[in-house]
Amino acid sequence: MDVNKVLDAKGLACPMPIVKTKKAMNDLEAGQILEVHATDKGSKSDLTAWAKSGGHELIKDTEENDVLKFWIKKG
Amino acid sequence: MTVNTMSSHEVTRKIVQKETLFILDVRNEDAFADWKIEGANFDYLNIPYFELLDGVEEIIEKLPADKEILVVCAKEGSSVMVAEMLSEEGWTVSYLQGGMKAWSEHLEPVKVGDLRDGGEVYQFVRIGKGCLSYMVISNGEAAVIDATRMTDIFTDFAASKGVKITNVFDTHLHADHISGGRKIAEQTGAMYWLPPKDAEEVTFTYAALEDGTVVTIGNTAIDIHALYSPGHTIGSTSFIVEEKFLLSGDILFIDSIGRPDLAGKAEDWVGDLRESLYSRYRELSGELVVLPAHFMIMDELNEDGSVSEQLGTLFKKNHGLKMEDEEKFRKLVTENLPPQPNAYQEIRKINMGKIMPAEEEQREMEIGPNRCAVR
């Protein structure tokens, strides 16, 4: 997967992971991919719902050693 | 305009006094649909906070000008953000201190009755989750029944009353919330009682609570009689306190009855549940005041915020006690059951002492309503 940008949102509490993701997304072109790292457990459901409502595609997500990773394709 | 905070205690008072409140819940739609703050005169607007990052203009026309507004989210952070945005637009709003996490953990102590020689019974209402715990106080001693994970509330309350906790009980192995019973017993040196049939897999030592066990609290003989009443679990036990109160655990609630399926044995236990409710409880005095371990809806709260009703009244009004047809009863408690409580299998394991996740994880597992009843 070609990742265009990586956002480190580890250690940030809600709402900051989404606020930062949204900002990072603004710098990308449609079709480009943003990789997000977060530790707030709530980010999973929130990022999923946010991506859906914003027309983006959550391609993949993983959880390893308490770090959640997301790959979002800009819509 | 200023942003105010509102505590879970203040929200509870509004529920009990049936006040109006407009709740702007900025959690995900799924989370809101699953579980929210319920009040008879509360109105709601659910819009996830991430829909409001560019501004709150789109919701302003949906906000009432004549009602107090409370912004709610999971852990407080997003509600503060949205409350501040509304404040910048000239609105005076509050946010819920600690969010739904604090709401889930809030306990409200209410006195539910007097016992002889100055003894007292207190109910601890976990308003957000619908769990009820109890403290029976007599002559310098206290018993705690069905304690929640927030054990400080009970030990602090006992200290404020100047009493020593000597006995701790769980009416059954809980599946919807993490018991604080063992921890309180360890901290205070109290005896921890569990029904042995629910405790076959536990990893710690406990005192076996059998049918007919009598435990005396204080030296003026406030007796707690154990009454074996299986059905919600195979070990479920009720308590009769001084021939006055019936602590019914998860067998009988005010407007519903216990579900028999949370240990995966609905078909096996339905007969026990029927026997407990339709035979064992029938033999008891109708004047006993029923004090259950849960409530489901705010309508079950009395005017003082407590949850209790005379057994005789429940025999007349509780739908689950009036089904003469055994087959219909079996269907009610085994078919079309509500969803199971969040993480109930893990919670059972924690209560058996098999796993011990970090506190934050325990908190997450308990999110949501208790769902121990069928109506």
What's the short version?
The complex is a heterodimer of chains A (75) and B (375). With 75 residues, chain A is an alpha+beta fold.
Outline the structure in words.
The complex is a heterodimer of chains A (75) and B (375). With 75 residues, chain A is of the alpha+beta class. Chain A has a single domain, classed as 2-Layer Sandwich (Translation Initiation Factor IF3), CATH 3.30.110.40. Chain A has helices at 16-26, 43-53; strands at residues 5-9, 33-38, 57-64, 67-73. In chain A, strands 1-2-4-3 form a 4-stranded mixed β-sheet, covered by helices on one side. The longest helix of chain A is centred in the N-terminal third of the chain and has 11 residues, at 16-26. Chain B has 375 residues and is of the alpha/beta class. Chain B folds into 2 domains: 3-103, Rhodanese-like domain (Oxidized Rhodanese, domain 1, 3-Layer(aba) Sandwich); 109-374, Metallo-beta-lactamase, Chain A. Chain B contains 12 helices and 20 strands. In chain B, the strands form 4 sheets. Chain B has a 7-stranded mixed β-sheet with strand order 6-7-8-9-10-11-12. A 6-stranded mixed β-sheet of chain B has the order 13-14-15-16-18-19. Chain B has a 5-stranded parallel β-sheet with strand order 1-5-4-2-3. The model of chain B has no long low-confidence stretch (mean pLDDT 93). The interface between A and B is medium-sized, with 14 and 16 residues.
